[in-house]
Structures are given as C-alpha cells and as structure tokens.
Amino acid sequence: MVISAIGQGFLWGILGLGIFMTYRILNFPDMTTEGSFPLGGAVCVTAITNGVSPILATLLGIFAGMCAGFITGILYTKGKIPVILAGILVMSGLNSVMLFIMQTPNLSLLKQPKIQDFFTNLNLPDHFDIVLLGLIAILIIIALLLFFFFTDFGQAYIATGDNENMARSIGINTDRMKVIGLTLSNGVIALSGALIAQNDGYADIGKGVGVIVIGLASIIIGEVLYGEVTFVERLVAIVLGSIIYQLLILIIIKVGLDTTYLKIFSSIILALCLMIPRLKEALNLKTGLEKNAGSKSH
C-alpha cells in the first residue's frame, strides 16, 4: 500500500507542478484544472479503446488539456472575463465535451493496453511499475520546466507574474504570457489526468471534482516543509508534498475512517497546511515576547 501511495504521489505531483505554473507564478488559481484533468483522461482512454497506442493517446490527452487552457486564456485576456470565472466557464463546458468524446459518463480500459505495460518485461514487484512511470514522467516534466523557465521567454513569463506593470513597461506582452502559461499549465495537468486514468483503469467525467485541492495541497505541504528553497528544489518539494499527501490519505484509510468523505479530509489537510505558517509566526512572536519580558525582569 505504501509503494502504491508513493506511485500515486508521483502521478498527482504532476498535477501540482501544473497548478504551480499559474497559482504561484502568475498568482491566480485556474479553475480550468477541474476540467482539463478529467479531459486528459477522457481523451486518452477513448483513444486507447479505439486502437491508438498508449503513448500517442497520452500525448492526445495533453493536447486536449492545452486547448482547454488556451480557451481560458483567450476568454481572460481578450474577452476580459475574470480569470476564475473564465476557468469555471471552460470547466463547465468540458463536461459536455467529455460526454461527446466518450459517449458515456465513464469508460473502462479493461483488457486494453496501458502505458505502464511497457514495464511488464522488467518483472517489477507490485506497484513498482507506477512508481517508475511516475518518476520518469516527473523527471521529464521538471527538466522541460527548467529549460523553459531559464530561457528569456520563461523569464518574461516569470516577470509577468512578479510585476505585470513593470513587465509591460519593458515591452513584454503580458496577455500572451498569460495565455501561454494557462495553455502549458493545463497540458501538464491533463498529462496527470491521462496517467492516473490509465493507472485506475478507467476515465470518468466526475474525476475532476476537487482535484485543485489535491494539487494545492502538494504545493502547500512542500512549501511548509522546506520553506525558502531554490527554484529547482521547489519543484522537487511539490512532488514530495504530493507523496506526503497521498501517505496522509493512506493513513486516513488505514485508521478506518469512511472514505466516502475523503474530500472533506482532503480539505481539512489543506486548511491545516495553510494555517501552519501563521501558527509558526504566532509561536515565534509569543516566544520573542516571552524572551523580552524575561530579559527586562533581569
């Protein structure tokens, strides 16, 4: 079970990396996430059931997610619709798109090939194929993100999130940066959805409900545990945060709590993680006041 949770942590960590691109760099939450995640799975599973190879099907899922992010970006930058509302509009519309693609609310991969089948000949122990698949995917995504962010274009993207007015004043087309950011972000998110759908063995249009909470939990847990880190370390911390989150969920299951209410447990974990920095500040302030009071009494 622990190995399975670690493998799940890697796959969900990809989701966290995708959300990081908008939530932490562009400084806004993108609700398209809850549509592009199941869309990636829906397109991938539908393609596989129609005879497409799992790798190509996964790439098609990524492309579908990128299209969803692009539409959100256009609505936001050209249509001047607030980004959260634009994301919600696209997310809602994607339910119908997924129904059209799958022709059913859920679609099984029973007796169909999956991307993790490529590791069958390695004779790995149970669940290690998912760990290996997740690790390879994570390394590829982090390498591509580092390549992107350390280019001049990537630096312009970061500058847009840091100070949009300053970025615009030096000639950066900030609207273009936002569209590209939303497009790439949702492509990464859709990759996570495609891989998790193959791991679960099915795609479902309801899989996107609450996934933004899971992605944010990965980011927040990583930040709480590791504090001030370099950019590379932050990306790694997000993945580790995702693994820790999955292990916490495993503990909840192991202690016998009703998994029907797993979403509320997820929300509670995220809320506690968000409050930890404030609690630390309050504790440090209290400790500092006590020290000052002690020094004055002497």
Automatic annotation (TrEMBL):
Question: Which stretches are transmembrane?
Answer: 9-26, 55-76, 83-102, 130-158, 179-197, 209-226, 235-255
> Could you tell me which InterPro entries the record lists for this protein?
ABC_BtuC-like (IPR037294), ABC_transp_permease (IPR001851)
Where's it mainly located?
Answer: membrane
Which parts of the chain are coiled coil?
Answer: none
UniProt keyword terms in alphabetical order: Cell membrane, Membrane, Transmembrane, Transmembrane helix
Name its cellular compartments. Cell membrane
Question: Per the record's keyword annotation, is Nucleotide-binding included, yes or no?
Answer: no
Q: Kindly give the membrane topology term recorded for this protein.
A: Multi-pass membrane protein
Provide the protein name. ABC transporter permease
* Record organism: Enterococcus xiangfangensis
